[in-house]
Amino acid sequence: MPPPERSSGAGPPRARRSAGDRRAQLVAIGLELLPTTPVQELTIDEVARRAGISRSLLFHYFPSKRDYYTAVTRAAADLLRAHLTPRPGAPPQEQAAGMLDRYVGWVETYRESHIAFVRGAAGGDPWVAEVYEETREALVDLVVGALQLPDDALRRQLVRAWFAFTEDLVHQWVRDPATSRPELLRLLTDVLDRLLDR
Questions:
Q1: Rounded distance, CA 106 to CA 83, Å?
Q2: Domain tally, the chain
Q3: 3-state class percentages of the chain: helix first, strand second, coil last, to nearest 5
Q4: How many helices (H) and strands (E) does the chain have?
Q5: Is residue 148 part of a domain?
Q6: How far from chain centre, in Å, is Cα 144?
Q7: Per the database record, which ranges form the HTH tetR-type domain (predicted)?
Q8: CA 26, 138, 121 angle in degrees (round to 5)?
């Protein structure tokens, strides 16, 4: 049984949240903080304060900081995949262009958090690397499907390499735009077309 949740003492007692609802609330708070705070820098005390619970109660729902950070990272990755999923019915090239435009917008919004996510995976942190690889493969699936490519090993390797290039260039562009956004999108699209010999 979880310890009783704190009450302000004013008004009728609040309905107790289910464990699933409370976990979802705590993850949502983490997501709200991501635009300004990389997940590894989220403060457990601040998350608990925003949720109106004690730090010790947060650790009832997530046994460790790593468990909480992993849950927030997975939720952010799920949102990214949903955000980039092409709208059905559009021609393949428009679907790919829309995905790319939305990706640039995502990095603009979550730049520090996204860089921390990518660097954490590159740095060998196992829980970050696992989520990162799952997300990268899901995005490769989206591009292969959007462009109606044969789903073979070579094309997946080329799309994966293009994502690595795209991540790095977009991160640099958001920090120091050396070209306009339309020019950036055209450049990234041209690189993908050349890689795939389209």
A1: 8
A2: 1
A3: 70, 0, 30
A4: 9, 0
A5: yes
A6: 20
A7: 20-80
A8: 65
One-letter amino acid of 147:
L
Instruction: With both helix axes pointing from N to C terminus, report the angle between 153-175 and 181-195 in degrees, rounded to the nearest 10.
Output: 160
Query: pLDDT tens across 153-176, in order?
Result: 999 999 999 999 999 999 999 999
State the Cα–Cα distance between residues 68 and 70, nearest whole angstrom: 5
Residue 3, domain member (yes or no): no
Structural domain contains residue 174? yes
124, two tokens = 């060998």
DSSP string spanning 76-91?
HHHHHHHHHSPPTTS-
pLDDT at 111 over 70: yes
What is the residue whose two structure tokens read 């903080």?
A: 33
Q: Which domain holds residue 166?
A: 73-195
In a domain, 162, yes or no: yes
Contacts of 99 (CB under 8 A, 6+ apart): 84, 85, 86, 142, 143, 146
Residue 160 belongs to a domain with what CATH number? 1.10.357.10
